[in-house]
Amino acid sequence: MATRLGYNALIARFNLAVPPPHQTFWLSERSAETRAQAADGTERIDLPRGRASAEQSTVEQLTFALKREHLNLTVLGALFEHPQVLTDIQEWLTSRPTSGYARQAGYLAHWLAGATFDYRAPAGAPRVRLLDADKYLVGPETSSPQFAVVNNLLGTREFSPLVRKTEPLQALLAEDLRGRVARAMHAIEPEMLSRAVDYLYLSETRSTYGIEDEVPDNNRAAKFRHLLEVAGEPGELSEEQLCEWQNLIVTPPSAEYSYRTSQNWLSRPGRLRNIADFVPPPAELVGPMMQAVARVAACASEGVLDPVVAATCAAFGLVFVHPFFDGNGRLHRFLLHHVLRQSGFTPAGLVLPISARMLKQLDRYSNLLKAYSRPRTALLNYRLDSDSATIHVTSPQPLWLYAYFDATELCEFVLQCCKLCVEEDLAAEVEYLRSHDQAVRELETWLDMRQAKLNSLIDIIVQGHGSLSRRKRNFVEELTDEQVQRIEEVVARNFAEYIDKRV
Predict the structure, then answer these.
(1) Which homologous superfamily does the CATH classification assign to the domain defined by 167-417?
(2) Whether the predicted pLDDT of 272 surpasses 50
(3) Is 195 helix (H, G, I), strand (E, B) or coil?
(4) Which of 28, 59, 278, 338 has its CA at 20 to 30 Å from residue 268's CA atom?
């Protein structure tokens, strides 16, 4: 029979209402370590006897968790609400005052839950860091003389994502994407780059609304494009600044002038729907959490954290906090651009079509959002009142439920999007424009057609992989079949490589 270990044991013992850990450890009778992955992506790890202590005390299981498992501040935040656990930690610190794991537990209980202990680290006790820099991306360091512990988490108590140094993440960080963006820009002649960037702004604007299945009118699209153009201006992410941006991306009736002061929720449209897909943190946590989100965003321009990682943590932090009733999704995607440009990752005047990349991988993007929202919402009891369009949450919504999450996969996703924006999207648009210009030069020697219509015709033929479909033949009904065929031949020849890459 297998015995629970670490966080797994502590969750069961204290009946902690927390999102299930991605990994669970067990002590089994097997002779070797085994790993099994479930359909939902969670992993079970069975350790043989001798690889871990069979003792089931709180201290033993805390030691195992801090030593062997990924740091889980959500589980620890819930655990430290139990007075008996704090008593056990006090006894641990008293009996083993130099223990690094005891000091980490004491510090985290104080940091997360405000617990106090009659303890002072002995003189000469070696300092211990909360995160191993070989395994995690780390933030600025602050020391605790009481526990001789160094806090190098990415954020503050109000918001602190965790980013593990997985092989995919480290490979993407080693790509020097900032340098590749700069080199790609310098390799393109200014006039061509200007035209390419114009399309990328249009693509990003359409895509950020397209993710939400919306088609903005020309006025809203123009406002969002302007917002993208001025992204990166100096200044912190204040409530005033975020409200100003929110006002620009929503319709006037939805404009807000402060963070929300009541509970909101997300729910898919439908008749008589009484299920919330996500219940964000309560209103009283919004301000403090957003201040902490701003602090993480600032790590990019301060050079403390990779710009894409900082932008990802801040942008997803915003959408998880959901500080407004409307516009959070678009604002979260805009924030990626703002932090990237403010840090110098994206040069002024250039936008990477990250939302367009997300739209092409909408299932993955959606699943990453749900990986945060679903397990937290599943823990809550609430009532939706469709008549008054209000929600009443009847279960606790502690800070630790929302403030801490593993952002590793989110960072891998956005880094991959940025890489493809540089390698494919920018290059593809330049290739399109060069092919287009050559086709126009050839066609204008004999074809008399308005430039706007010719541009549209070329685009239609390219979309048709080198031919004009019968359904769209009426677009140029004034031309003979021979003339259409001649146009098709010119376009197909000049766009041959472009079309081949996209068939």
Answers:
(1) Fido-like domain (1.10.3290.10)
(2) no
(3) helix
(4) 338
